[in-house]
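User: Could you walk me through two proteins back to back? I'd like the raw sequence and the structure tokens for each, with a short line separating them so I can tell where one ends and the next begins.

Assistant: Of course. Protein one, sequence then structure:
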Amino acid sequence: MEFSILDRIVAWVPGRWIRAEKCLGESEPYLRDHFPGTPVLPGVLILEGMVQAGRALVDLSEPGPRRRLAVDAFRGVKFMRFVQPGERLEICCQLMDFRKPEGPVEMLCQGEVAGRMVVSARIRLKVRNSNHGSAEETGTFKNREAVPFCASPQLVQLGSVQNESHGGEVFRWLWIDRFTQFQSGVWAEAYKEVPSASATSGLGRINPQGLSATFILEGMAQTGGLLVFDAVGFRLSPIMARIAQAEFYFEPRPGENLVYRASLDRHGPEGAAVTITSHQAEQLQAKAEILFALISNGADAQPRVDPAIFYRMMTELGAFDVPTPGRPIPLSNHTAAPY
């Protein structure tokens, strides 16, 4: 990945913990879609910040050649509140196990805004296969011999996401390309073409470089969330609340498609549970179990998320156009959700 979702690292103790910050500005490009009228920081970008902080801590804790780490699993992820523009997110990651040179890195992470918990997660990173995936990242800590190997409160400034344009194209927070099958209230299938390492993105300096685990997770969540939105009759907004587990088995090959398959396990007043898989060339690439909260657009909702956002996504991604029997039925003109 050639970007940092974090603004700065404010403190760390080598081999133990790290603390980083993200100040959410109003002009960051993904806020246009997430969500119009009620902009909030996408949950997967909080997870991405945790992953980047964990990688930085390992890099600051070990002399010698860098370990190239990829996400192996997220477990027990809980989203407790939104992060909105003007707020400062503080991320803290504590290493649980990282001493084995070729072994996994286990860490406990949490995110807070003004002392209130936003997200908690357990994350496992694994050593990336040098024969597969993207080229070596260009990171702040490339030359670790020049970084103080000691407890800090020292500040390391990082690059932040900038609202840049690429060829006049407006960035969209859509991590699937199109639905291919959709059995209303039961299951759905969508695909995403994996970009090449040289592809550019409108998300500031973010270059997906074949898609990171967090953006794959967002594509899976969008597939499952829109399946849930159809199941509740387009009335409530599905918001990712918990990820029981998400496992990633290999890094997808650029230029080929990922196929996301979501199955609705159950839904009710407490929310909706969905199991989603990602396949490439019929090989299981990732699997996730996600619980969506179902929130209304009423006056007491904080913040309010208009269900019309999700209806528009279904329309743009062809959920009403697939030939599968039992596909969703679009609302009539006089009852259609307003844009």
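----
Protein two, same layout:
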Amino acid sequence: MTDLFGIPKPLAPLAEAMRPQSLAEVVGQPHLLGPGKPLRLAFDSGKPHSMILWGPPGVGKTTLARLMANAFNAEFIALSAAFSGVKEIREAVQRAETVLAQSGRHTILFVDEVHRFNKGQQDAFLPFVEQGLFTFIGATTENPSFEVNSALLSRAAVYVLKSLNEDELGQLLARALDGPLAGLAFDASARERLIGLADGDARRLLNLLEIIQTAAGEDTHSIDGAFLDNALSRNLRRFDKGGDAFYDQISALHKSVRGSNPDAALYWMVRMLDGGADALYVGRRLVRMAMEDIGLADPRALRLALDACETYERLGSPEGELALAEAVLYLACAAKSNAVYVAYNEARAFIGQDKSRLVPEHLRNAPTKLMKELGYGREYRYAHDEPDAYAADEKYFPEGMPEMNWYRPVQRGLETKIAEKLAYLRELDSKAKKS
């Protein structure tokens, strides 16, 4: 295909060629587009409002913005925050003013990856949103609570878009095979594998189909799993090193370990490694879990987590990953206690709001004669010289400060024995007070 001057026009990617032209063609997002749902009501009202569309890649954020412009007969201006700055924002404002003056038409300004704009750039939109010069629609894959400034966020509704499920991806695949890719056919296993590789992303599905179509050429035989393996390079699951997907998967790993589910913990760890996470970062998180969720219920957990990190540093991938797998399974199966974590946080909170208390004289160091003459270290009871190596009812807190009980062992693992030991010592304290 050529233009008026005989210059070949670039072929539109399949994802662009199949972009829905009406709301009825949109696949997915029934929680927003179903009857009586928020975005359906917005379309039906005929009155656009500013909004943030938050969701993973390939779920229809740009498509919905374009459809709104069509539905409201509005001028559509698109900016990508990855490639735009204040200059482009000013040009968009001037264009919106020109359209309004010349035709009376309203403008929808769509900003893709709005989280990439800094605070000053985001603030530049505010006066024009308030004046009603344009309706602002921002798209982001990041949590807008963190990435969009509060002033802009307060003027826009936030809609959360979800990844497409297998049935929805299947609908999209069938539509492509009935239309632009009518020459291709997939057997059941290849169809299932292709949908899995798409990972909830409609654009990825269509891009993969284009690759398969190119590899197949004129051959229209049924595509099987072996053909997919040859046509497609190794696929990485969705994993954003620093975005919501990153922290969501870390959270899932941590909670699976805490919940003592070794298989789920192993699944999330492998998902993270498969997606490109730094293996030593995963290892550091395992060390944190050993301290926060296991603690003294099983002190071996911390050493095992540290050993896994050291093993990975020495062996690298893939051998070192087996050590991380061993650690994550051990942590998930270990006895759980957050007593150390709770005690530390309570002590830290107390210190943060308490006054600076002096060290009692009997606990002070006395390396010089003067210090000894001042009474430093006097009347200190050396525990090893006492029965059971315990100075019953000795005072270790600052004078005037009540005895605190921050560390409370749980009745699990080694902490059961620790609790018994502390109870015995408290009994010795009580007897010493009475004597």
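The mean pLDDT is 87.

Let me know if you want the two compared in more detail.
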